[in-house]
Amino acid sequence: QVQIVESGGGLVQPGGSLRLSCAASRITLSSYVMGWYRQAPGKQRELVATITLTDSTNYADSVKGRFTISRDNAKNTVYLQMNSLKPEGTAVYYCNARLDDIADYWGQGTQVTVSS
């Protein structure tokens, strides 16, 4: 059974940094378009960042210049480096692995809380 597991969330002060990790079992993440999404309380899930098979990246306007998505194919892991975090970044962050219309996998999410 495919498993997507996020880690690295936690409590951080405004202006601080966190690095989220997304690891997988039974699939090779380098073959998938990977994305990070987040869902704040009372809001819809929104796209944060994506990375394609050729490592082209895309970011939500709200995180451009502060967040970086990357892959480590040797570790079968995708990362989201989050800098200059703001309170509005408080949310559950989810990792997504997508292969065209063939497969679409989600993790259980990791909580990020930005508060002083």
In words, what does this structure look like?
- The chain has no helices and eleven strands.
- By secondary structure, the chain is mainly beta.
- A hairpin with a 3-residue loop joins strand 9 and strand 10.
- The radius of gyration is 13 Å and the shape is globular.
Q: What is the first-to-last residue Cα distance?
A: 40 Å
Rg:
13 Å
- Helix and strand content put the structural class at mainly beta
> Helical segment tally?
0
Strand coverage percent: over 45%
Order of helices and strands: EEEEEEEEEEE
Largest sheet at a glance?
A: 7 strands, mixed
Q: Compute the average pLDDT.
A: 96
What is the helix fraction of residues, given as a range? under 10%
- How many β-strands, per DSSP? 11
Low confidence ranges? none
**Net shape:** globular
List keywords for this structure.
about 120 residues, mainly beta, 7-stranded mixed beta sheet, 4-stranded antiparallel beta sheet
TL;DR?
This protein has no helices and eleven strands. It has 116 residues and is mostly beta strands.
List the helices and strands and how they pair.
Blueprint: E1 3-7, E2 10-12, E3 18-25, E4 33-39, E5 46-51, E6 57-59, E7 67-72, E8 77-82, E9 91-99, E10 103-106, E11 110-114
Parallel strand pairs: 2-11
Antiparallel strand pairs: 1-3, 3-8, 4-5, 4-9, 5-6, 7-8, 9-10, 9-11
